Amino acid sequence: ASFAASAPVFKQGTPAEGLYAVLAGEVVLSVAGAAGPVHIDSLREGALFGLHALMSDAAMPQSAHAGPEGAFLQLISRDRLGAVLAESPDIAARIDAGRRVSEAVVFLAGCASFRDVPNDALAGLAGNAVERTLRRGERLISQGEQDDTLFIVKSGRLVVTRREAPSHRIAQLG
After folding, report:
1. Predicted local confidence at residue 84, as pLDDT
2. Up-side HSE of residue 61: CA atoms within 13 Å toward CB?
3. How far apart are CA 35 and CA 45, in angstroms?
4. Above 70 in pLDDT, residue 105?
5. Contact 72, 2 (CB under 8 A)
6. In this predicted structure, what is the pLDDT of residue 7?
7. Which of 16, 85, 94, 147 is most buried, most CB within 10 Å of its CB?
8. How far apart are CA 116 and CA 126, in angstroms?
């Protein structure tokens, strides 16, 4: 399908129809922010988006519109998607990696600490992020250890204590 310059492809909150492939032009992804749309990414030829169609019946977490020169897109419906992925494991791997980065960028863009960080920097950060799940009582890092990792609490609570007084909470994050 062909989209004129700045024409909407879909709006945030609408049901996912399938996976989109950018065949020509540019597509701009954004999410609704308090002061208006927040730019998430600009996609060019060869990019895939609409990954949420693969995962669930959830609504689209972002809006998409054609770039300044318009866009030519191919929609792979949810019904055909399974067959396409079974035939192309490399596409399935690209989709999964893209989905993880996209979800991380949306999460980071919603964090007050990252609100003014440019989206390309958020995408770089998200592309290098490793998600970890800790069980209750599991230690993330110990006092005195050196690490060059940025830890962000996505959900749940993280308790900060000192070795000398493990029952005394210095902070509770999350």
Report:
1. 78
2. 18
3. 30
4. yes
5. yes
6. 97
7. 16
8. 15
Contacts of 158 (CB under 8 A, 6+ apart): 134, 140, 151, 172, 173, 174
Residues 123-141 as b/e (b if ≥16 CB within 10 A, e otherwise) read bebbeebeeeeeeeeeeee
As a whole number, the mean pLDDT across the chain is 85
The letter for the amino acid at 141 is I
- How far lies 156's CA from each of 135, 171, 172, 173, in Å? 10, 14, 10, 8
Structure tokens at 54: 């693969």
Token digits for 144? Answer: 């005195």
The predicted pLDDT at position 54 comes to 62
Query: What's the one-letter identity of residue 48?
Result: L
Q: Which of the four pLDDT bands, split at 50, 70 and 90, describes residue 72?
A: very high
50 secondary structure, DSSP code: -
User: Which among 48, 64, 82, 79 has a CA at the least distance from the CA of 3?
Assistant: 64
Q: Of 57-61, 86-90, 95-99, 103-107, which range is least confident? A: 95-99
β-pairing, 18-33 vs 63-77, is antiparallel
Nearest to 20 by CA among 44, 47, 41: 47
